[in-house]
Amino acid sequence: EVQLVESGGGLVQPGGSLRVSCAASGFTFDDYAMTWVRQAPGKGLEWVSYINWNGGTTYYAESMKGRFTISRDNAKNTLYLQMNRLQSEDTAVYFCAKGRGPYGYEYDYWGQGTQVTVSS
Asked: I want to staple 9 with a disulfide (CB 3.0 to 4.6 A). Which of 18, 38, 93, 114 is the partner?
């Protein structure tokens, strides 16, 4: 059974940093690309970032470029999202999602999410 468990969310002040993690199990982690998406209060899902199976290719939504860094540790079956210079607009529930293959941009499973709140 595929399981994705996000953690590391919390309350942070504007301009601060936070790293969220996603522990994966139930599949061969390094066979699949991974994605972060988020959902702000009252809004739909927003794509955040993508990483291929070995971390060699990453993409970011325009508003996250230069502030967010996606990475993965295949030995630990864990995906990360380092978020710097956080803004109030980054307040959302952050979900990790499993791609449909080593380079898959579409995803088929996601976790329960972790809440990130940016506020003073």
From this structure: 114
CB distance 34 to 99 below 8 Å = yes
Q: How far apart are CA 80 and CA 72, in angstroms?
A: 6
Are the beta carbons of 21 and 53 closer than 8 angstroms? no
Interatomic CA distance for residues 46 and 43, integer angstroms:
9
| Other CB atoms within 10 Å distance of the CB of residue 18 | 20
One digit per residue, the tens of pLDDT, for the chain of length 120 reads: 999 999 999 999 999 999 999 999 999 999 999 999 999 999 999 999 999 999 999 999 999 999 999 999 999 999 999 999 999 999 999 999 999 988 888 999 999 999 999 999
- Could you give the CA distance from residue 25 to residue 79 in angstroms, rounded to a whole number? 11
Distance of alpha carbon 5 from alpha carbon 49, whole angstroms: 17
How far is 24 from 15, CA to CA, in rounded Å?
Answer: 29
Among 92, 93, 97, residue whose Cα is nearest residue 36: 97
Give the CA count within 13 Å in the CB-facing half-sphere of 38. 23
